[in-house]
Design a protein that fits this description.
Number of helices: 2
Number of strands: 57
Radius of gyration: 29 Å
Structural class: mainly beta
Length: about 675
């Protein structure tokens, strides 16, 4: 295990050990007589706390719940994948006819003649991080996370046959992802760097040809034309390894050890170019190690490479320049906004906000573009499942999608960017409330998408909740806003009804089913407020509980649920509270979800529930006995979003960290 990860796990183990010892010690003091009769023991008895009404978790049942391995596989079939996801890397095919885009959805292959045409998608669980074409353009190497786990991901490099779209080979790289794989000039090798190692794989089978032990993790690597030299750029400069001698040297990047992020060998292997976003590019003579060229104002942001004639091509984010490194003469300049120049130098492709744009390199005219749909925030689903409301980070646009096929029904633009997760639907789905980044509260009619209310708030809003008839809105202040508190406004006029200041941030809110109370969860407390006056009816200390971010009621209203993250320790929990007394009546815990529950969904009659984890799991439970029934491992790239269940079709909508929305169908059994 790597040193930086070992410290983390040692810390977690130490904390767990301390807690366990403390628990054991407490049990001895209260339940056993050691016969010493010393004054310390008497003092502990005298200072024992008075009994309180604080809820006590129930004693676990003697019969343990079945292990995950004993649970039947949940019949979860992916029906629709929506959105391109976050763009991580762009690569040109050698013939300049295709563009490979590594994204949250997988590898998107665009026709360079028309980006607006539907791309070919190579599905990769967890998405693609980067890719490289073989020199003959028939294959692609991709880097990705194929088995997502919050702390223990399994990283892979894959080979794809572009003629068939089939994956033909793979190699695991442990917990470290290959940043940017590269092919050797003759196509016989694929190289990739992970933490403390560079691998050279056979390009046909991905068998390891050689492993080079290093310190740190390179940003980019390059292979010389004769396959003997391997160079890599990292925080302390540029390194070169000679395979025949088994020796490694460090070329100082400039006059000091400045970070490098790009490297490229010249066609004759005599020189090595290096670049960074903050410093001009340099060219080293590999025989002497001396700097023979230093750029002027250029900074390397998107690309650094040699053309066949030995000229340097530099993309600095504003222009693409071709420079003769022997003379420093500017050979050609393409004034396109950033981007990567095609091998034939006729086009350039660049990211422009949420668009992928193709430019003519000579005329600088836009040729074509593709809109990118990065759905990286939790979706909302209308109660009748007629539309999925999807959105992306820091965007004021809501994308209304058809649940049947994921097609775009409508795009609604609100007046101001929506603030993080401050978005909620009323129970009947007729109203949507949102907080914008400029502290405006919006209430929208979801039939017409007309803004019914726009009112400025004194603080950024962290949680929102409608009452049952949509006449009142409960709100809480976000972290960092003072004072903390909960307030209620008239949902039609925006007038404040009452404000109650609290000691800590309330991270989720909910009205009781009869609208008489408002329940708010903070990190260390559960607040119960009178919905009419704001009076604090109860303040329940939950400092001994781990995590808990989301509130909801069971379908029959028989219990209030609290669930969420579990902190550093693996295991999921859902706390069930008596809605009359708010005493804890049951706690479902276990190792079935790693790192917390993000969503709880019930079927129509409330007999089954599905939990959605931060990990890769969907778990089906008997909602009466609270026992797991089946499990599916379907989530890519660490599950982030909440989910909703369509009771008739048993469909679930989720989002992933990679910016992709997915629709799953759950089998009837």
């Amino acid at each position: 295990m790597k040193a930086r990860k070992l410290w983390f796990f040692l810390l977690v183990f130490a904390v767990a050990l301390i807690l366990a010892l403390a628990a054991c010690g407490g049990g001895d003091d209260g339940d056993s007589d050691n016969g010493d009769g010393d004054q310390d023991s008497l003092a502990e008895v005298d200072n024992a706390p008075e009994p309180t009404d604080e809820p006590v978790p129930p004693t676990p049942t003697e019969e343990p719940a079945p292990d995950v391995a004993e649970i039947a596989a949940l019949d979860a079939t992916e029906e629709v994948l929506i959105g391109t996801g976050t763009i991580r890397n762009i690569a040109w095919s050698p013939d300049s006819q295709q563009v490979a885009v590594s994204a949250g959805a997988g590898l998107l292959l665009y026709d360079a003649a028309d980006l607006s045409a539907e791309p070919t998608l190579l599905r990769i669980k967890g998405g693609a991080w980067s890719s490289a074409y073989s020199p003959d353009g028939t294959r692609l190497a991709t880097s990705n996370v194929d088995v997502p786990d919050f702390l223990n991901p399994t990283q892979f490099i894959h080979l794809w046959d572009l003629a068939t779209g089939e994956r033909i080979a793979e190699a695991a790289t442990g917990q470290e992802r290959v940043n940017l794989p590269v092919y050797s000039a003759d196509g016989s090798l694929v190289a990739g760097a992970v933490y403390e190692a560079i691998y050279l794989w056979d390009a046909a089978t991905l068998d390891v040809v050689e492993k080079i032990d290093i310190e740190g993790k390179p940003v980019r690597i390059a292979i010389s034309g004769d396959n003997n030299l391997v160079a890599w750029a990292m925080s302390d400069g540029v390194h070169v390894y000679a395979r025949d001698a088994g020796e490694q040297t460090l070329l100082l990047y400039g006059d000091d050890r400045r970070a490098a992020s790009f490297v490229a060998f010249s066609p004759d292997d005599a020189y090595l170019a290096a670049g960074t976003e903050s410093q001009p590019p340099l060219v080293f003579d590999l025989a002497s190690g001396e700097i023979v060229f230093q750029g002027g104002e250029e900074r390397v942001r998107d690309d650094l490479r040699y053309d066949p004639a030995g000229n340097l091509i530099i993309s600095d984010g504003y222009t693409i320049k071709k420079i003769d490194p022997a003379t420093g003469e500017l050979v050609a300049e393409y004034r396109v906004k950033g981007g990567i120049l095609s091998p034939d130098e006729s086009k350039a492709v660049a990211l422009d906000g949420l668009r992928l744009v193709m430019f003519d390199a000579e005329t600088r005219d836009e040729i074509s573009a593709a809109d990118l749909l990065v759905l990286d925030k939790p979706p909302l689903v209308l109660p009748d499942f007629s539309a999925i409301i999807a959105r992306q980070w820091s965007s004021s646009r809501l994308h209304l999608l058809d649940p049947a096929d994921g097609s775009l029904l409508e795009t609604v633009t609100l007046s101001g960017g929506i603030s993080d997760n401050s978005l909620t639907l009323s129970a009947d789905g007729s109203r949507l409330a949102a907080c914008t980044r400029d502290k405006m509260l919006l209430v929208v009619d979801t039939d017409t998408w007309e803004e019914l209310l726009a009112v400025e708030q004194a603080a950024m809003i962290g949680a929102l909740a409608f009452n049952s008839d949509n006449t009142r809105l409960a709100l809480s202040a976000r972290q960092g806003q003072t004072p903390f508190g909960v307030w209620v406004i008239d949902a039609a006029t925006g007038d404040e009804v009452w404000l109650t200041e609290l000691a800590t941030e309330v991270i989720d809110l909910i009205f009781s089913p009869d609208d008489t109370q408002i329940i708010g969860v903070a990190y260390k407390a559960l607040y119960v407020l009178d919905a009419a006056t704001g009076e604090i009816l109860q303040e329940i200390d939950r400092s001994s509980q781990t995590g808990g971010e989301y509130l909801d009621y069971t379908p029959d209203g028989s219990a209030l649920m609290l669930y969420g993250d579990t902190g550093f320790f693996p295991g999921a929990f859902i706390n069930f509270y008596d809605p009359a007394t708010y005493k804890l009546i049951e706690s479902v815990k276990g190792e079935r979800h790693n790192y917390g529950v993000k969503g709880v969904i019930f079927n129509a009659d409330g007999s089954r529930m599905i939990t959605v984890g931060r990990d890769v799991h969907l778990i089906l439970w008997d909602a009466v006995t609270r026992q797991p029934i089946a499990q599916a491992d379907v989530m890519p790239d660490q599950m982030l979003g909440l989910a909703k269940l369509d009771a008739d079709a048993a469909r679930i909508v989720t989002t992933s960290k990679g910016g992709v929305l997915q629709l799953w169908t759950i089998g009837a059994e």
